[in-house]
């Protein structure tokens, strides 16, 4: 009997390990619904990416303030969490998470043209032209700006 119980516990542990999405969701602080765009069926929090996101420009003030829409889309597997987090400030929450990226400099001949040319990223903030290895870490301003606007994420 003891051996059977031990096996059952082992099997349940393996099953739980096979579902990291559900376990990880418990660790995400979705925040509240204080955004003017909350509860409109689209996630407006730039910490997320995917089909459940709004098509409009993402703004810092929505970080952590569209909980219902983001949680719903996340639980439906229409969003991924980009790993950014929010920190408490005197007036609310602010994004953090851009400082872990080595942005480099603006030495690329395509720097400061409003499009990210660094192939480490993907998203609508990217250039439509061929990406070059020589532009990696050399389009700082364009890539960082698009990333902060939620128009880029690191390639996985």
Describe it.
This protein is of the alpha+beta class and 156 residues long. It has two domains: 28-95, no CATH class; 98-156, no CATH class. It is 26% helix and 12% strand. The strands form three sheets. The protein has a two-stranded antiparallel sheet. Mean pLDDT is 77; it is low at 9-25 and 85-96.
Q: Percent helix among the residues? A: 25-40%
- Helix count from the secondary structure assignment: 4
- Major beta sheet summary: 2 strands, antiparallel
Order of helices and strands: HHEHEEEEHE
Strand order of the largest sheet: 1-2
Structure characteristics:
156 residues; alpha+beta; 2 domains; two-stranded antiparallel sheet; 4 helices; 6 strands; 26% helix; elongated
Set out the fold topology.
Elements: H1 2-17, H2 20-25, E1 48-49, H3 67-75, E2 80-81, E3 85-89, E4 92-96, E5 121-122, H4 140-148, E6 153-154
Antiparallel strand pairs: 1-2, 3-4, 5-6
């Amino acid at each position: 009997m003891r051996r059977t119980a031990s096996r059952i516990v082992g099997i349940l542990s393996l099953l739980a390990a096979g579902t990291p999405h559900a376990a990880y969701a418990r660790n995400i602080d979705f925040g509240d619904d204080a955004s003017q765009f909350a509860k409109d069926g689209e996630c407006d929090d730039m910490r997320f990416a995917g089909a459940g996101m709004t098509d409009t420009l993402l703004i810092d003030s929505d970080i952590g303030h569209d909980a219902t829409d983001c949680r719903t889309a996340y639980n439906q597997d229409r969003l991924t969490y980009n790993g950014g987090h929010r920190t408490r400030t005197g007036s609310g929450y602010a994004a953090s998470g851009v400082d872990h990226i080595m942005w480099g400099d603006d030495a690329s001949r395509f720097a400061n043209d409003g499009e990210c040319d660094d192939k480490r990223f993907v998203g609508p903030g990217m250039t439509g032209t061929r990406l070059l290895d020589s532009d990696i870490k050399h389009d700082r301003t364009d890539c960082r700006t698009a990333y902060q606007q939620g128009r880029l994420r690191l390639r996985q």
